Amino acid sequence: MPETARRADRPADHPHRGSGNRYGSRPTMKDVAARAGVGLKTVSRVVNGEPGVTPDTERRVQDAIAALGFRRNDSARVLRKGRTSSVGLVLEDLADPFYGPLSRAVEEVARAHGALLINGSSAEDPEREQELALALCARRVDGLVVIPAGDDHRYLEPEIKAGVATVFVDRPAGNIEADVVLSDNFGGARNGVAHLIAHGHRRIGFIGDMPRIHTAAERLRGYRAAMEDAGIAVENSWMSLGVTDPERVRRAAETMLSGPDPVTAVFAGNNRVTVTVIRVLAEQARRVALVGFDDIELADLLQPGVTVVAQDAAALGRTAAERLFRQLDGTLLAPERIELPTRLVTRGSGELPPSD
Question: Containing H/E element for 100?
């Protein structure tokens, strides 16, 4: 078939064929006006819902908009109103199950306020957190919800002064005054370890995240407080903090569970640590008690079920997002620190008595 014939067979109004449009090149109001056979001002009236257009003309314009895939460019409206109706969410790791309900809760609150949520992961890297947060600000988001990876957030001071509403969640901001919504990490860990002590345990191991992370430090502090309350001297070999990589956690757990005086119980500092510890305990000849911080999927179906200190991730996200929009509507003044309670969920693993 001749090349000219093949070109002629292509649909004339396909957005990427025949019309000369390329990917990334969107139709304009001029294109809509030409297709509908009307003036540019008429298209503008239809797009912006203004009066002065007959029903027949409006229908022709709407048909042209649908055929071309036209979308209004809101950049000019943003410049006029100073708002983009979008907010940013900086997470630690989108793949972490804990952040799923938190992110969804922020999104639902944003949606209720007619705003779009844009999120991304810092991968627990302070430089990446800063890069991502400032990139969102450069795209003119109205506000930010940040789960900090770093401990110095002075880089956000110019953005906050410029009117970007900002709320920190799960961990506090560093070196600036800002709204923060936290779980009671100290109290939750203290209660979880006290629960193991109440069931007869004295040699209790703690495996947590990196000590520079606020939640890890607070949970370690809660562990120490519970042991001190019970008059139990903690041995250094019972504590291990570091990355939550399964190999590191496995080594820590196996070390605590071996030797002449192994621990009889383990307190796992977060959901990823808990999963690895469960795998290690399944290989042990003796039964070892376990309490984890953060609930995990299928925890109630294991034998025994996994006892956890549960925090409400959705409530964290919802509370943070609600405060963000209260900042935006001007009803909040001084920054506040809000701490949400945790709850102990007993399922069996934390109620096992010492095996020796």
Answer: helix 99-112
